[in-house]
Write a structure and sequence with these properties.
Elements: H1 7-18, H2 28-32, E1 41-47, H3 52-56, H4 63-70, E2 73-77, H5 85-94, H6 98-101, E3 107-110, E4 115-118, H7 124-127, H8 133-139, E5 144-147, E6 160-162, H9 168-174, H10 179-185, H11 201-218, E7 223-228, H12 230-238, H13 243-265, E8 272-277, E9 283-284, E10 287-289, H14 291-298, H15 301-305, E11 307-312, E12 315-320, H16 326-339, E13 343-347, E14 369-373, E15 377-379, E16 393-394, E17 406-412, H17 429-437
Parallel strand pairs: 1-7, 1-8, 5-6, 5-7, 10-15
Antiparallel strand pairs: 2-17, 3-4, 8-17, 9-16, 11-12, 12-14, 13-14
Helix pairs in contact: 1-13, 11-12, 11-13, 12-13
Length: about 450
């Protein structure tokens, strides 16, 4: 089986695929091998870190995604707070805010373990507290798959699952039993994935593309969640709207074309809906801020020892680990942060619900207070406070910032054509996908009519 298309075959597949729904005559594969009972197929493609403003600018040439947008629905997508990958993907998967699904950031201070814990190190059952799209789809009788989707390590509800984790050991333990062996038999380096990150992020995206193509061709899951990461990686390293982020999105554009070509080869295009989303945009940052260096001058050693700081992009979460110091230390830290010119806002627990976070006392790992840096500031912990951070792009800031609005494109079966919906958020995606598959999230309001036809 070959996973890499030549330029010519990819170009032909691209235009055959994006024109399939508009064509009056079905393809040969669809006419000669129709399914015994028509099924629906939903592909959710998450392109990490691309902003709507960057996508619609002249900076980007992404012919496939632009064609899908022209033939379907396109608009900005509001993220959640903090606008971080793991929080956002939990909202994509559950249709809920962090107050309900419980994922607070890419990392938190675990009060029970008494250490900082990365979200990727936790299994789905430990992280997401709300029912997920894939769990409900599986319960409704649909086949499901996820490729590098956050919060899915050891997750239930997925027939085929390659989670977003960052070591071979966690790939081995968190993936669906037998999947890595199956991928290895198909010629992919599944037993040596390790961590393709930083400058090699495109290799991880290539593995995501190849794994997704394999799952489509070998199993044709009715729900497939696929997550591409290279654009976000390059956005952090080089900043938004740079040649590197343009290159990454154009590479992902070709990879999405390979996925659609796989559906075409299976004769499933007329039954397919594609939802392209991004979890957040990216803001340029030009200076660093270290609260630890601030506290070194203003707090006593005992106070500093009882305080932990967890960084989630623009958001700094502060945990007082000594219960005897909470009452005195929280207001003192809050006053120091309010006086810092690089801090835009300090939020105490009584303000968490307004941000979509859990209410005080409802989540064990809520911080005792949090602070939000200015949009151009990168909070970090350098050894030398005078050092300029090497990060050029950041997210985490409150999601209504124009450049943090993500991308939404819907195309295919059941999608209205030519619409530009306003006010879409990450919490709309799971209900939309569920309706496309023929079931609904309990207690959710009726879906918007500017995305889907009444009877998709």
């Amino acid at each position: 089986m070959s996973f890499v298309l030549t330029a010519r075959t990819w170009f032909v597949a691209l235009w055959l695929t994006v024109g399939a729904l508009a064509a009056a005559t079905p393809t040969h594969a669809q006419t000669t091998q129709p399914p015994a009972s028509p099924r629906r197929y939903v592909l959710v493609v998450s392109i990490d870190g691309v902003s709507y403003n960057e996508f619609v600018s002249d900076h980007i040439q992404a012919p496939l995604l632009r064609k899908l947008a022209q033939q379907g629905v396109q608009g900005p997508l509001l993220s959640v707070f903090p606008s971080q990958t793991w929080v956002a993907h939990a909202s994509l998967a559950t249709g809920q805010l962090p107050a309900v699904h419980g994922v607070l950031g890419n990392r938190v201070w675990d009060r029970e373990l008494k250490q900082e814990v990365e979200s990727w190190q936790r299994g789905n059952g430990d992280a997401i507290l709300a029912p997920t799209l894939y769990e409900r789809a599986k319960a409704a009788g649909h086949t499901t798959a996820a490729v590098l989707w956050p919060n899915t390590s050891r997750a239930g509800g997925l027939d085929w699952n390659l989670p977003e984790v960052y070591s071979q050991r966690t790939f081995d333990s968190g993936s669906s039993p037998g999947l890595l062996t199956e991928l290895g038999s198909a010629g992919l380096p599944a037993t040596r994935i390790g961590r393709h990150g930083n400058e090699e992020a495109f290799l991880l995206d290539t593995f995501v593309r190849d794994t997704s193509v394999h799952l489509i061709e070998a199993h044709a899951p009715e729900l497939l969640l696929t997550h591409f990461v290279s654009l976000d990686t390059y956005g952090h390293t080089y900043g938004p709207r740079t040649p590197e982020t343009r290159w990454a999105l154009e590479l992902i554009d070709r990879y999405v074309g390979d996925l659609l070509a796989a559906y075409e080869r299976k004769g499933l295009t007329s039954q397919l809906t594609v939802l392209v989303v991004s979890d957040h945009g990216m803001l340029p940052v030009s200076k660093g801020f270290s609260p630890s260096h601030l506290f070194a001058k203003k707090l006593k050693p005992r106070e500093r020892k009882g305080l932990e700081i967890v960084y989630n992009g623009h958001v700094m979460m502060f945990y007082v680990t000594d219960p005897k110091q909470v009452e005195a230390l929280v207001p003192k830290v809050a006053d120091l942060l309010r006086a810092a010119p690089d801090v835009e806002q300090v939020v105490l627990p009584d303000g968490y619900e307004a941000l979509g976070l859990p209410a005080p006392g409802t989540h064990p790992n809520l911080p005792d207070l949090l602070a939000i840096a200015r949009p151009d500031v990168y909070p970090w912990l350098p050894k030398d406070p005078r050092r300029t951070p090497n990060t050029k792009g950041l997210h985490g800031y409150p999601p209504r910032h124009a450049d943090l609005l993500g991308l939404f494109v819907a195309w295919g079966q059941g999608v209205k054509v030519g619409q530009r919906p306003k006010g879409l958020s990450l919490t709309d995606i799971a209900p939309i996908a569920a309706q496309l598959l023929g079931f609904s999230f309990e207690g959710r309001a009726p879906l918007r009519g500017d995305v889907l036809d009444p009877a998709p």
